[in-house]
Design a protein that fits this description.
246 residues, alpha/beta, five-stranded parallel sheet, two-stranded antiparallel ribbon, 10 helices, 56% helix
């Protein structure tokens, strides 16, 4: 593989990890998919597709081999979930996502329309928001409600987050990383998870910093600012769960 394409592939790694982790529902399973896919891509160069898209394609295929494309999660086929993740979380144009999944653009458009309908009918949950900026917290509250969920509470510090999680027992936590003087969102979540098993979505303006694969990192990461659809898809995937390959 030419050096320039290798470099493009390495630059795509953080985003490939985000996609794979969200798809599987765990860091370890997602990173395993990425590692397997990267080995294959490094060995066989195919210039017909940009390296980032090719990496998404290999991850999708490896996942299908383990889980099966007809696996259902709350009534939605795995292929439709991949399409939602690629177009919302990874922000690919529909034509690129269709190429990754070996669909025609028309097939992808039809599948997306059906997936959006299914998404709106998914089970609702209560969401604890951990965010120290009041205006941003209000915006996130509105987005959460637009997705059909309820607000369990809003915490601006580590201590408040731990207390509210214990009192409200939310179905999902949406956490910022940097809480300013209030501490660290990841520390707050770590404390909560010692006593409760709750899906977590981390929100950050710098997702690549949480997707290195070098340490224990989040399974679900979305980028600030985000659209309601991105939150809806990530929430659905976090609550319904991906297919772990462990």
């Amino acid at each position: 593989m030419p050096l320039s394409r290798r470099q493009d592939l390495l630059r795509a790694l953080p985003y490939a990890r985000r996609y794979a982790r969200a798809l599987c529902g765990s860091q370890s399973s997602g990173d395993l998919l990425v590692a397997e896919s990267l080995r294959e891509l490094m060995a066989v160069d195919d210039p017909s597709m940009p390296p980032r898209l090719r990496l998404y394609q290999w991850i999708s295929r490896q996942h299908a081999a383990h889980a099966g494309e007809h696996e259902q999660a709350v009534g939605m086929p795995a292929l439709a979930r991949k399409l939602l993740l690629l177009t919302s979380l990874e922000e690919l144009p529909v034509a690129d996502a269709a190429q990754v999944l070996s669909l025609s653009p028309a097939q992808a458009e039809t599948m997306l329309e059906d997936a959006h309908v299914r998404l709106r009918s998914c089970a609702q949950t209560s969401v604890l928001i951990i965010e120290d900026e009041p205006i941003i917290a209000m915006d996130i509250e509105e987005l959460v409600r637009q997705c059909g969920h309820t607000i369990a509470g809003v915490a601006s510090s580590e201590a408040e987050a731990v207390r509210l999680a214990r009192e409200t027992r939310p179905g999902l936590i949406l956490a910022d990383i940097n809480l300013g003087d209030g501490g660290d969102g990841m520390h707050a979540v770590s404390s909560i998870l010692q006593h409760q098993d709750i899906p977590i979505i981390f929100v950050t303006a710098y997702p690549e910093r949480l997707l290195t694969g070098d340490t224990i990192e989040p399974a679900f990461v979305i980028t600030k600012p985000f659209e309601p659809l991105t939150l809806a898809v990530s929430t659905y995937q976090a609550v319904s769960g991906g297919v772990s390959l462990n």
